[in-house]
Amino acid sequence: MAAPVTPGGGSQPGQRPMYNRGRRSLEPEHKINNRIQASQVRLVGENITVGVYSLAEALKIADAQELDLVEISPNADPPVCRVVDYKKFLYEQKKKKKEQKANQAKQDVKEIRFGPNTDEHDFEFKLKHAENFIQDGHKVRAYVFFKGRAIVYKERGEVLLLQLAQKLQEIAKVEQLPRLEGKKMFLMLSPKGKITK
Question: What domains, with CATH codes, occur in the chain?
């Protein structure tokens, strides 16, 4: 039977504690310290000599720095472990995920709707919106909606979308040329490289 884990300390001298700080009922996301089962691990981290060590040696190195041994690539042979403060490690992982999410959100697809008989004033107004979206790093999906018999004006819709693409050619590239899907004709535009306002 495993010895009880004392708060903030090891269960026995020379033995790394299981990660329990404030997470008694939750399993850690990664295998850490005594939960690591491999007999050998590839060690990475700051202030250590990168290399393959026995698990006992790796735990000793982590213990000497008062840090945790965290398995970061369990499928590697041998598994890769990092000597790090687990709390800090989780915080950085969370931050990284948040940044990735933010970058994905930046690439949102914004929709702009036209009618086949959109007048010049309305066109200019929507063009300005499309321009702002592109400059903010978003993709623009412009479409012409054909109501009822207006489908007979599909050429007019195509001309309108191509006119939009032409007006935005300095800052946007055409990802998909006008294409009719049901009662809608779509055009996809995306930003050209880095846009500076």
Answer: 33-101 (3.10.20.80), 107-191 (3.30.110.10)
